[in-house]
Amino acid sequence: MDLDQKAFRTALSHFVTGVTVVTTLCKNGSKQGITANSFNSVSLDPPLILVSLARSLGCFKHFETCTAFAVNLLRADQVDLSNRFASRGADKWSGVSHYAGCSGVPILADRLAVFECVTHAQHDGGDHIIILGKVVHFEAESEHHPLVYFRGRYSQIARHQSAE
Length: 164
Hints:
Radius of gyration: 16 Å
Distance between the termini: 45 Å
Structural class: mainly beta
Strand order of the largest sheet: 3-2-6-9-10-5-4
Helix content: 10-25%
CATH topology: Pnp Oxidase, Chain A
Shape: globular
Number of strands: 12
């Protein structure tokens, strides 16, 4: 059965996702970062998360061969930062406040949360690679709302009261 790829992509866009910037440090010392919304928690014991990255990315080889990476969850007010790391070409790091995490990978100084990982496993995901990371350090804040993506564009989460 052949699926219409455009219709499939449109149907998938109905799932609300958070927006992240995945970062790593290359063997030559250069920093890499890419916007991704394919991020999931996998396990609490051991603490595992996953990211899926397109094989077509210019920086794909850096992530495929990395031994450590970080997933930076973006805040609702960070659309420009998301667009910067989603773009090709220009110096994505110019003027972006960041620091080296415990494994040396670049961490965005301003973000909603960050998960620093060592690469645990990689799996074929068709036109993507699925990278499982074992979380070695994390930080989170609760002051801001997340940046989310829905139906092909950035969206806002409406304020709500939790049911208790």
